[in-house]
Amino acid sequence: MQEKVLTPPDGVHLEDIEVGRVVEFGRISVSKQDIITFARAYDPQPMHLDEEAAKASIVGGLCASGFHSCAIMMRMIADGLLKDGWTSLGSPGIDECKWLKPLFPDQVLTGRVICTEKRALASRPEVGLLKVKFEMLNQAGDVIMIWDSNQLLKVRNPGPKVESGGKGERPPPLESVWDGPQGAAPDPTRNFFEDRQIGEIYELGSHTFTKDEIIAFAKQFDPQPFHLDEEAGRKSLFGGLCASGWHTAAIWIRQFVAYRQKIEREIREAGAPVARYGPSPGFRNLRWLKPVYPGDTLTFRGRAAAKIDLKSRPDRGILQTDSQARNQRGEIVFNIRGQILAERREPFRP
To answer: Which residues pair with 143 in a beta bridge?
Structure first.
């Protein structure tokens, strides 16, 4: 067990975080019904919904959506670190998430975190940025998920503001999937790994966020005040009640799965063979670029970005897709590089 450190009376600020120290937190048990309920709402793939279908999949049994695992981790962070006094100001995103092992029903999960870097923002010295590695472990002590993440925290004694910004203050702008060179929509009758073309565009539909659904998701997975209470939201960095970033991510995966299932129906109707997709090994470059407020309508689009051959699994390849969401004002609010295993027509031979 880690020795418990007393929380300062005014909460845990940037100055209190010790780089290199491991902190353990959280304990959650996940039931079969929890897995199915989340999957029905956000990630309705057979391996998350149907035990017989899951047995026939790569994972070999009913398991949680990777984004369910992320939402559970967020809940453990909220109940552990944030309730223990961390002065959270939200997160700008995740550099990389790795899903290492399936999350099966009735597993008992715990978390641990280590800070690898910390600094105050030059342009907002009252705001601190932590580079942190989160790990989710099952009851056997196996690490089943890793985040290389970013966390904003209050600074107790801010220094002077530096107008020019500091190291890493302004990351390079993302390339919009609505602009630049891009290919046509995929041919629905050619859906194996070898068929996929870099630049293909996926129109993933739209979703309008309501106040009630924002609060309902936050109550279950991310109960930070700015996701639950309008007044707390107005006093936060976001200036108003806004959706959890994991809520936005959950809507994205729902849109993506619905798109994929529509394509599969079209393939079957055309009498062509359907390639098997999934699971995903994780994602990269998840960015929550702007808050999502009640009434915002997000439109989602993806673009095929890269294809990776796998020596370890020659019947599959990894298809990487850059997906984004923009609001009704045309502002990009969400970005992610997703990854998914796609069946090959012929085994890979190096």
So the answer is: 137
* Closest by CA position to 89, among listed 126, 135, 116: 126
Residue found by looking up tokens 């659904």 in the block: 213
Burial (CB < 10 A; 0-12, 13-18, 19+), residue 141, is: exposed
- C-alpha–C-alpha distance, residues 65 and 69, integer Å: 7
Closest alpha carbon to 32 in 137, 136, 103? 103
How far is it, in rounded angstroms, from Cα 220 to Cα 164? 40
- Partners of 324 in beta bridges: 301, 335
Contact 326, 332 (CB under 8 A): yes
Helix (H, G, I), strand (E, B) or coil at 78: helix
Alpha helices in the chain (DSSP H): 32-42, 46-49, 51-55, 66-77, 211-221, 225-228, 230-235, 245-269
- Prior bond of 279 cis (ω within 30°): yes
Given a cut of 70, whether residue 83 has pLDDT beyond it is yes
Q: What is the pLDDT of residues 25-59, one digit of tens each?
A: 999 999 999 999 999 999 999 999 999 988 988 88
Residue 225: both structure tokens together: 């005040």
CA 303, 306, 307, 312 torsion-angle sign: negative
Tokens of 21: 């120290």
4 by Cβ neighbours in 10 Å (0-12 / 13-18 / 19+) ranks as exposed
What's the pTM value of the predicted model, to 2 decimals?
A: 0.92
The 3-state DSSP class for residue 227 equals helix
Decide: 283 and 336 in contact? Cβ < 8 Å: yes
Q: What is the pLDDT of residue 180?
A: 72
Q: 221 in helix, strand or coil?
A: helix
Task: Using DSSP, state whether 202 is helix, strand or coil.
Answer: strand
Instruction: Tell me the two tokens of residue 11.
Output: 């909460």
* pLDDT of amino acid 164: 57
Distance CA 209, CA 186 (A): 29
Give the Cα separation of 309 and 251 in Å (integer).
29
| E strand spans, 88-160 | 93-99, 108-120, 127-137, 143-154
pLDDT in tens, 106-154: 999 999 999 999 999 998 999 999 999 999 999 999 999 999 999 999 9
